[in-house]
Inverse folding.
């Protein structure tokens, strides 16, 4: 049996996942970060994107996160996610509509603050659409 690392995924509402995995690939602030057993300690922000959970050299699960924080330590990997949704539960047509509506909101923004809020929401929706249409890891 391969070595594993404990992966905990927590949202503001509840503990979403707590299991041993061979590897997890996370959308960290500076780029995708692979977490394997024995990973060096690190704390980072998480950008909108997909967590890919590997077991048996295949992706076992994909979870979209809208952002948050990750801590890797000697006990494992803890992800504190603002929002977390299994990619399998995302509806591509609904997400495409969300992206289109948010693009309209960006264009219709009346001031810089409203535009910044709309652009932030659009970035999350576009990452969600990419998670549905073009998963990075298989």
């Amino acid at each position: 049996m391969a070595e594993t690392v404990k992966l905990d995924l927590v949202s503001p509402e509840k503990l979403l996942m707590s299991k041993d995995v061979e590897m997890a690939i996370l959308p960290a602030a500076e780029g995708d970060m692979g977490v394997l057993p024995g990973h060096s300690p690190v704390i980072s922000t998480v950008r909108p994107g997909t967590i890919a959970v590997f077991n048996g050299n295949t992706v076992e699960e994909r979870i979209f996160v809208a952002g948050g924080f990750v801590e890797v330590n000697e006990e494992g990997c803890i992800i504190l996610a603002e929002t977390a949704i299994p990619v399998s539960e995302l509806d591509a047509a609904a997400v495409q509509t969300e992206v289109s509506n948010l693009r309209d909101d960006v264009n219709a923004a009346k001031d810089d603050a409203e535009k910044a809020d709309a652009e932030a929401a659009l970035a999350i929706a576009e990452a969600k659409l990419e998670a549905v249409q073009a998963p990075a890891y298989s």
Q: What stands out?
A: The mean pLDDT is 93. Strands lie at 5-10, 15-21, 23-28, 31-35, 42-46, 49-55, 58-65, 68-73, 76-81, 84-86. The first helix runs from residue 92 to 108.
